[in-house]
Every structure is written in C-alpha cells, then in structure tokens.
Design the sequence.
C-alpha cells in the first residue's frame, strides 16, 4: 500500500474537482500516504477465517413502507437554487453527458 | 442490413426501467410522471446535508419480481455511491448497486427460440430531468440547462444482458419481450415514450472466431424502431471503419433519429472512474427466503406462457394468426379473448378482433367490458351484425358503454331480412348485365364490383361474406 505518488493524488483531486497547488499536493500526498499506511496495518492480521463485512453494524433490511409523504413546497425548494427559470433550477450549460 | 460473410455484430443491452411504486426509492416523495416541475422533492432527493435515505420495501419486491421473472437468483446485496459531477444528481453521486446486485445470472428466451443471458438486474435511483436551453437544443449548444428534480430518486432497475445478441432484429425482439415481462410482472408500465423504459446498446463487430471488437455505447434510443436502426447503422459504421484500416474507439455515441446516424458524445479513453464506494447510510439488503418465495408465487403468467395458451385455442395456426396472438399479449387483452371464447365465440374471430380493435390503453375504452366484447362478437358470429357493424359497435361501446344489442339497434344495424340480400342482388344484376356476364364467365374481380354496389345500397351494413355467398350461389344458374 505504501508508495502513493503525487500523480495518484493529483488524479484523485481532479476526480473530486479539488484544485491543489504544488505545496498542497506535496502536503496531502504525505498525509494521505500516512492514512493508507495506517490502514495497511490491517493487512498484517490473519483474517482467513473472518467473513467479509459490508457494514460495521450487523443490521440488514431496514425498509420503509411505500407510503407517500408530503414533499417540500416548491417555493422553498427553488429558494435553494442559484438561479431559477420556468420553475426549474437553472445551471450553467452542461458540457458532456450524464453517465 | 448484413455484414459481409464471416463478420458478425455483438450486442449487449442495458435496459433501465422505472418501477411502479407510489414513492421514490429512498424517500416518501411521490413517484408520478407528469407533475409540475420540482413539486415532488424533499431533503433526501435534493441531497441536502443531514438527510438520510431509507429503502422502499415495495421497490425491493418489484426488483425481485423482475429478477425472478428473468430466472435470476436473488442474493444478499449492498448499495454503493457512484460519484460524478452533473447537475441532474444534486448529491453529486447516484446510489446504485455495484459488486453485489440484488439479482444476477438469469436469462430471457425469445419467441424465435434463441436465449439471451441476463447478467444482472440491480436497483438504483433515477436522476433529475434536464432541459437544455439555447443553441440547437442538443446538449453541446445549450446556453443554460434547467433541472427538474421530480424524477431524482425514482426507483429504477437496470437489466444488463450478456453480449449474446447477434443482430439488430434480435436486439429488438429482446427489448420487446423484456418489455412484456416488465409489464406482466407488475414492475413497470413499459412506456418508452415517457422514458419509463430506456435502452442503451453496446455494439461491436468482429470476424467470427476472433476476439470481440472494441464496443461503442449507443444512447438516445427512444423506441424499439430507433434501437434496431441505430444498431444496424453502428455495426455498418464500425465495419466500414475496420475494413478501411481504421480502429474503433471506445466511446458513447448519440443516436440522431431524424438523420439516422450516430455521433460521438463522449470519449471513454480515460475509463470512467466513478470512485464507487459503499453507501455508508444504507445497510445490507438480504431478503429472507420466505419473502423471495412470496414474490415468486405472486408472479402471474409471463408473455411466452400467455402466447402459448392463446395459440392452443387455434387449430394449426397460421403465421398471421400467431402475429395476432402476439399483439393480443402485447396489448394485455388476453382476458377479452378468453371471455369471448368462453361465451362461444370462435377463437380466431376473438383473437383477430382483440388484436385489431383493442389497441391503445385500457382507459381509452372505459365502456367496453370483457362481457360486452364477447356479446358483440357473438352477434357478429350469428350473422346479426356484419364485420364492419361489429367493429362500429365495439368502438361505440368503448366510449359510451351500454348493451351491445341495444347499441346495434340504436345505430340502425338491423339484420337484413332473409331474402332481402338476394332481392337486392337480383336488381343490381339487372342494372349491370355486362358486369354480371363477366363475373358469370369466371372473372372473380367483378365480385368486388357487386360487393361495392351492395355496400353502397345498404350504406355499408351488408355482410361482405354473405354477399359473396349469394353471388357464388347465383353463378352459372
């Protein structure tokens, strides 16, 4: 797990749309490497007999019934929008396409 | 379209279907098409800080119903966040299933006897709906985009086929059969025009026996016809490219229905990196066996079984009759046919009338019941109504309702008295001696002439078949 490169950190930052300058890139590469090293400690443990866990607590099947609840008033919702047109959230033009 | 000898196309389909729940996947906002923009939202589906998703039980049941109808295995599953930046997802991630989907490993048998594998059918949430202003209306020219979040968080099941499809016609047949299964399982209304069923197609071409070629993904396939046309176009495009020494790039392509071409929308050279990770706000989904079996037991008959049931009513059915059976099942009007047959109507007549006269949605014919449909066809079968009259009675009943015999009387459809038709023809033969002589000498085309004359004289109320019988009987006398 060791040996996190600046390029990898730069890529993760780009994917998350976080702009980092060179000093920050240096600092966060260092910090992130430490976090990963800490997690790598787990690899030293013998977990052969332990079933994989998807969640820290043992709950499953937390469900709700299919019953309609009141939605928010539209005026209140649109008040959150940076800009509004035709009762919709107006956003800068989209380049590319949703996945 | 066909690729040259030795080449074949490989197609896999990803079908998204909205589920017929009352509420969204993770919140209690209504799941209803066509509401005023942004009137069905709350902190959860708007992605406001501090809101927490809770899974909809009914959505899980419908997802299992789809999986079971496709012979898949329901397994314990988890939810992941698929991260991307696009304003139709206000959270900046979509909750989906990744490495542990609820359904995996099924298949779908097509009417032509071929089998297409279904790799998985997983639960995920829909995105909001964007409208693009300015420019040409296409995404690239838009000045501004407007977003309606009513659809954000609506439950979807994505059904991923194996790359088992080898022609555009087979892809269309798969999509049509799947649509029928989604409707029959009660999971979806299958309305492609409203976007409740959406299809993406992965297409590649290769020389038979060699590894698969690089695939491209087609989007904007809004009808079964678009699906078929786009796949044929794309396979030809890729073949022409490869044959001239070019290389297919992996990319997403947009189908332009008006121009009949696909064009690059987004390159996939930098493989999509959605940084999937486990959704920490949701726990595992592990439906117990008893629940799965309850859903399985609740599944009604699927289209293939229903087609077989109707076809069995026919003796040695023709291709056209089998097509009509397929239409009846697609329209979901099996019940009308069965009620008519139970009332003594010939199966052939019942199937033909159901296929041709019951198109459209059930709500477009509120006045027509299975019983009044059957009664009308009985009147036709007994000769009290001609075929044309029976169809008019059906369309009248559809809107206004009522008793078929009464409606027929009100429309002035009296059965022609015995001998009346003979008398009418006697007169027409006298008026058109040349035409009669030619018919009498064996020119069958003149039968049409006399039928037309009879229809004119009776304002379309005569029974065409009866006219032919009288004509034939009169011949050579």
Sequence:
């Amino acid at each position: 797990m060791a040996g996190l490169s600046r390029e990898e950190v730069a890529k993760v930052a780009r994917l998350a749309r976080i702009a980092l300058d060179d000093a920050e890139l240096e600092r966060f590469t260092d910090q992130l490497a430490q976090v990963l090293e800490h997690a790598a400690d787990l690899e030293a443990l013998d977990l052969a007999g332990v079933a994989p866990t998807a969640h820290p607590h043992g709950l499953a099947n937390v469900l709700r019934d299919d019953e309609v609840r009141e939605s928010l008033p539209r005026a209140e919702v649109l008040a959150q929008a940076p800009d509004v047109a035709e009762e919709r959230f107006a956003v800068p033009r989209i380049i590319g396409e949703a996945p | 379209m066909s690729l040259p000898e030795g080449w074949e196309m490989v197609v896999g389909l990803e079908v998204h279907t909205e589920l017929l729940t009352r509420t969204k996947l993770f919140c209690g906002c209504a799941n209803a098409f066509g509401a005023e923009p942004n009137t069905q939202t709350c902190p959860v589906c708007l992605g406001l800080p501090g809101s927490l998703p809770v899974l909809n039980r009914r959505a899980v049941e419908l997802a299992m119903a789809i999986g079971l109808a496709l012979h898949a295995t329901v397994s314990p599953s988890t939810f992941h966040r698929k991260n991307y930046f696009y304003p139709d997802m206000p959270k900046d991630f979509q909750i989906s299933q990744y490495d542990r989907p609820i359904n995996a490993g099924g298949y779908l048998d097509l009417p032509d006897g071929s089998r297409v594998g279904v790799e998985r059918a997983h639960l995920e949430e829909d995105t909001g709906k964007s409208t693009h202003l300015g420019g040409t209306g296409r995404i690239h020219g838009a000045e501004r985009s407007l977003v309606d979040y009513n659809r954000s968080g609506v439950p979807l099941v994505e059904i991923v086929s194996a790359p088992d499809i080898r022609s555009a016609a087979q892809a269309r047949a798969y999509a049509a059969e799947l649509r029928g299964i989604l409707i029959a399982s009660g999971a979806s209304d299958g309305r492609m025009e409203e976007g409740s069923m959406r299809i993406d197609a992965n297409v590649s071409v290769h020389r038979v026996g060699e590894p698969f070629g690089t695939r491209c993904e087609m989007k904007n396939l809004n009808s079964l016809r678009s699906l078929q046309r786009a796949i044929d176009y794309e396979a030809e495009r890729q073949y022409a490219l490869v044959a001239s020494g070019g290389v297919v790039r992996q990319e997403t392509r947009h189908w332009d229905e008006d121009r009949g071409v696909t064009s690059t929308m987004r390159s996939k050279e930098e493989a999509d990196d959605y940084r999937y990770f486990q959704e920490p706000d949701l726990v595992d989904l592990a439906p117990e066996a008893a629940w799965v079996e309850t859903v399985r037991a609740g599944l009604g008959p699927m289209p293939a079984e229903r087609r077989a049931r109707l076809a069995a009513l026919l003796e040695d059915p023709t291709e056209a009759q089998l097509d009509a059976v397929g239409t009846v099942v697609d329209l979901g009007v099996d019940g009308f046919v069965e009620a008519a047959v139970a009332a003594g109507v010939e199966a052939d007549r019942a199937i033909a009338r159901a296929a041709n006269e019951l198109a459209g949605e059930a709500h477009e014919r509120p006045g027509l019941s299975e019983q009044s449909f059957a009664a009308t066809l009985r009147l036709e079968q007994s000769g009290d109504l001609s075929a044309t009259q029976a169809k008019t009675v059906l369309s009248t009943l559809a809107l206004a309702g009522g008793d078929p015999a009464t409606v027929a009387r009100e429309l002035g459809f009296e059965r022609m008295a015995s001998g009346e038709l003979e008398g009418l023809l006697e007169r027409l033969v006298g008026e058109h001696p040349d035409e009669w002589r030619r018919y009498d000498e064996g020119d069958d085309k003149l039968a049409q002439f006399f039928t037309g004359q009879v229809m004119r004289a009776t304002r379309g109320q005569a029974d065409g078949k009866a006219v032919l019988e009288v004509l034939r009987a009169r011949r050579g006398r």
Helices of chain A lie at 6-15, 22-40, 74-78. Residues 13 and 20 of chain A are 7 Å apart (CA to CA).
